[in-house]
Amino acid sequence: MRKRQKISAWYKGSAFGLALAAAASALTSRGTIWLKSPLTTADRHENIFELIPNILGSAFEDLLLIAAAFFIYKSLAYPFGPRRRRVVITAAYTAFQVMLIVLFALNALSLVRMGFPISTSWWAYLDDSSSLTLRISLFNLLSLSGIAFVASAMVIAPLIAFGVWKLIIRFAPTAIRRSVLAVLGMSAAASALLYPSHVISAEYRTITPLRVALQENMFGKEHLDDVTKLTSNSDWETGGAKSYFNKSIGDKPNIIFIVMDSVSARYIDPANRQSRLASTPNINALMDDGTYFTNFYAHTPVSAKSQLTMATSIYPGFAAEFDTRVLEEAQSIPISVPLKEAGYETAHFMTGDIKLAGIYDFLVKGGFDYVGESRDFECTGVADDMLDRYAHLGDRCSTDAALEWLSSDKRTKPFFMWLWYTNTHHPYYSETPADANAGANKNEQKFLQSLHGTDAQIGRVVEHLRKKEILENSIIILTSDHGESFGERGHFAHGASVFEEQVNIPFLISNPKYFGDTDQPRINDRIGGLVDIAPTILDILNIAQEKSWQGRSLFDPNKPPRAYFFSLIANVMVGYREGDQKFVLRGREGDLVAYNLAKDPEEENPETVSGDRKEAIKSRMASWIKYRKGLFPDG
What we know:
By secondary structure, the chain is of the alpha/beta class. It has 2 domains: 2-215, no CATH class; 255-560, Alkaline Phosphatase, subunit A, CATH 3.40.720.10. It is 44% helix and 12% strand. The protein is built from 20 helices and 15 strands. It has helices spanning 2-36, 48-58, 60-77, 83-113, 131-141, 144-171, 174-194, 197-200, 208-215, 281-288, 303-312, 324-329, 336-341, 359-365, 386-390, 395-406, 442-467, 500-503, 533-540, 611-631; strands spanning 254-260, 290-297, 345-350, 370-373, 415-421, 474-479, 485-486, 492-493, 507-510, 523-529, 562-567, 573-578, 581-586, 591-596, 607-608. It has an 8-stranded mixed beta sheet, sandwiched between helices. Strands 11-12-13-14-15 form a 5-stranded antiparallel beta sheet, covered by helices on one side. Helix 14 links the parallel strand 3 (345-350) and strand 4. The relative contact order is 0.13.
């Protein structure tokens, strides 16, 4: 009887108090996001009557879930059923509300300090080789402000709310209790009316980890498992050993392959209005002596997967884990192998963490003569907090190391130098000041500063080649591993979608001798992707392509006019670009849509695809994924 009374007491007082504790955590977290996050307007001047509805509205979805949990518990745990069932349900309810308190705080902390929500994708980084991600995450958490926030959102605010409710239950008359409940209910209702509905449901305002845990790697009602008729494999099988580049290459030219991390095509493409936001004079100069491919794509907006695709001309695996192991087991041939056989010296310099996902070992085994990352370089003049906050020394130090390698008296062979800059990766770092751009939000401002700094390092490389009198015999190739979002459709950073800002990337080939005349168009609209880089380089050099590669030279007139892409973080999306049409299977929405990029470049007007056309498009997507998995059954 006494145990029954304890359960009854919990139901009458403590259960609702716990719901209030979770609500306090949600409001503390959402308020912190609203006031401090770089994703919202930092310089707002709101009075208390505007601020409270905004915070309540931004937490509306969280509060709705808390209330739903309480009412479900109320209907199940009391007064029906045996005592054992009520104990189990009470324990489950308590654990769920406590879990929400933790998720609210962690998600808000990630948004405020990192600029994007946490998601289950971070689980893939929890291994010994992923020190870059872990160091950045720990630095952003282990600060006085971070600890204070976690303490407030997880402990102080919930305990105060729980304690106040227990005091009201103990000492206040029933009328006062009902008044408190009425005020809470009216505040929530008012917030829903006063706050814009599209922001209430935006991804960065929700309990992202919980939502992602349920959605990641899952499709809705529309999926590819029901496809029975597959298309041919012609889109992703090698084009053979023929040479299609229409210029006669004399002496073996040097190849300088530059990757700018997280740079969308929109900031480089001269036809895109957003390119005006970026200050990139050195890249613009390369454009004058080059061919720019305006319809070029990353196959998934994840750095480690893109890096391996560039190296091997193999599409990334449709799975959360990295591709290194399956590529090694399949004895995939990286670009270094045919280049070394043709007499080239090969080197890879990276500002970031090249040991991530075992890529360092993969490249060394693949025959690169030198592989180095930021921590391998000796560099002076770096700000005191640079290594701690960004886990690397910066693009300037990578450039120093690369130019020192180029200056060696032992360098007698033609070379392939892969230079990967990561200052443009979140949290965006630059040692080179640039004017602030009023057309960008706070996070985008930082990104544009870092892009300007990286552009300066590219200028140093070009000037060095010019001084050594080898610029004319050096082909510079510029691209990115994926794009970056700055609030579009509630997305930030990268990895969570296949919208243009995350997968459409720059691709530029520059050389005054081979690309600086009228024989090569300055703007090329041929569709391609990262898988095509290695075949294109070998085509220019008149070296036979490896038979195992899946890409095709961008100069091959018979190259299929499509590029494929997918995302697995926060929302499963699969798609491809063909002409002006872009087709996307959206896991969260459970539909197949088409975008006309010529008329709708911002992808704001999706057209639902149905009937035979839908089946044909799904068949092509399923064929691509099945072909990739057929080569690597585990990846």
